[in-house]
Write a sequence for this structure.
């Protein structure tokens, strides 16, 4: 029902009732912007693993919400269709447009701080932020990956693409080096020389 990197709009009052021990900053963050991001991990209707983000990089809090506490969901692929003007940094807007020209298909979308800002309207990106994107894909070779990385260097911000396969996720830039990848599954991490196996 929900996938890692999906943004969930939540019923804050209900969530706070079942998560009374939140750090003060997390409580304030949810009161201001009632969104959490789905984390990797198994879940059922009563325990969706999510993360709360604060103002700084070290303000990240892992917790669980239930399905009935979710008001709305925004996938990275839905966020791709939003206007770049929802981003407050000019170079973030320009980077978004550059990627839209490069990948005109529907198999990618923004994640991380850019996805959060697009969905919520809350400014979280900084000049030094990476522009995180998720690309859903079937097999492509290392030389093709190198070409993708080269093309993305034309963007004003550093673009950090994560490739999603049927069985997990891996870094495009890491794959382009041709030395294997740290492969992310729903339950952990694996070192793989071929990230497409079992995909």
């Amino acid at each position: 029902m929900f996938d890692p990197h999906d943004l969930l709009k939540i019923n804050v009052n209900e969530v706070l009732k079942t998560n009374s021990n939140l750090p003060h900053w997390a409580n304030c963050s949810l009161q201001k912007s009632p969104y959490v991001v789905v984390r990797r991990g198994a879940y059922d209707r009563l325990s969706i693993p999510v993360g709360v983000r604060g103002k700084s990089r070290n303000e990240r809090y892992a917790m669980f919400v239930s399905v009935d506490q979710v008001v709305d969901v925004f996938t990275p692929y839905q966020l791709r269709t939003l206007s770049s003007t929802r981003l407050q940094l000019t170079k973030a807007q320009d980077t978004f447009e550059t990627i839209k020209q490069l990948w005109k298909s529907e198999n990618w979308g923004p994640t991380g701080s850019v996805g959060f800002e697009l969905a919520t309207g809350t400014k979280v990106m900084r000049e030094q932020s990476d522009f995180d994107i998720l690309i859903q894909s079937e097999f492509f070779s290392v030389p093709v990956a190198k070409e993708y990385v080269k093309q993305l260097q034309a963007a004003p911000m550093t673009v950090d693409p994560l490739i999603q396969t049927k069985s997990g996720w891996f870094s495009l830039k890491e794959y382009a080096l041709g030395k294997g990848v740290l492969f992310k599954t729903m339950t952990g991490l694996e070192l793989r020389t071929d990230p497409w196996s079992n995909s």
Q: What stands out?
A: The chain has a mean pLDDT of 92. The radius of gyration is 17 Å.
